[in-house]
Amino acid sequence: MSRALLRAALLILIGASATFPAIVPALAAEAPVQAEKNPPGDIPDSQVFIDYSSPEGFSAKVPEGWSRTDHAHGALFFDKYNRLDLSVAPATQAPTPASVKAGEAANLQATGHAVTINSIKPITLKGGPAVVIDYSANSEPNAVTNKQIRLEEVRYLLFKNGKLVTLDMAAPLGADNVDQWNLMSNSVRIN
Question: 95 with 15, same domain?
């Protein structure tokens, strides 16, 4: 549930009583949680990757056996705290580090859970030039335990032929997924 929805729900539940101001600051100032000592989330070196082709005109390699949820402009693949989200949107120009800092990165910080941006930089992938945001954030609270873990996340933004493909990857902070993330990010192609 987003902070805005949670805030609205609290307003409905407690009205405009005097206790509301004491609750709101706790929601607005979420602190980063500590990284796990033995993070659950390494993608095994033996992981098999399969081709995913979107009817929206892009493709990528994704881990075989992960759960998949299709959405309007792409798909989400996940396994425990590992997440891979691919989507496409129309765009008139390629992103730049400055435009990403003002747009995408600012939006992540405004809407995410204790987001810390580590870097925003241009990169050349096998599928073409991109801008990558490297950051960390808290996970969504577990529906049963309400526990959160600290995640390392990356967002790649690739542009071609009026399409902006966004590749989001997340795993528990400290998980060793460098090779697998490189494989997936370098497999993105825009038709």
Answer: no
